[in-house]
Amino acid sequence: MNAKITAAEAKNCLCGCGQTVSAKASYRSGHDAAHCSMLLQGLVNEVADGRPITKALIAQEAKNLPSAPLQAKFRNAAERLMAKVAADEAKAVKKMEANA
Fold first, then answer.
1. What contacts 85, CB < 8 A, 6 or more positions away?
2. Is residue 71 within 8 Å of 39, Cβ to Cβ?
3. Where are the domains of the chain?
C-alpha cells in the first residue's frame, strides 16, 4: 500500500536529507545507515583534527540516534574505529623507533 503522506502526517527524515517520512517512520529506507555513517564521519574528522575519540564522545554522539539498536550499531562501529586509530598510532610509533 503506497498511500500518499498528507502534510499533517509528514515529518522530516532524521538523517537530515530533507525528505519527508510518515508520522510512524523516523527514516527513509536506508537512511538510518546513512545517519550512522555521517556520525562516524564526524568522529573521523575529530581524529583528523588531532582530537581523541573517547567512549564519552561516542556515547554522546549515539544519543543523536532514535533507537537502542541503532545506537548500539553506531557504538560498535565507533569502537572499531577507535581500535583502528590506536593500532595505526602504535604502528607509527614502532616505525619511528625503528628509524631512530
1. 47, 53
2. no
3. 32-99
Exposure pattern of 1-18 as b/e (b: 16+ CB <10 Å)?
eeeeeeeeeeeebbbeee
Q: b/e for 60-78, b at 16 or more Cβ within 10 A? A: ebbeebeeeebbebbbebb
Q: CB neighbours (10 Å) of residue 36? A: 21
- pTM over 0.90? The answer is no
- 3-state SS string for 6-36: CCCCCEECCCCCCCEECCCCCCCCCHHHHHH
Count of alpha carbons within 13 angstroms of residue 94, beta-carbon side: 6
**What backbone torsions phi and psi does residue 6 show, to the nearest 5 degrees?**
-80, 160
The per-residue pLDDT for range 22-35, each reduced to its tens digit, is: 989 999 999 999 99
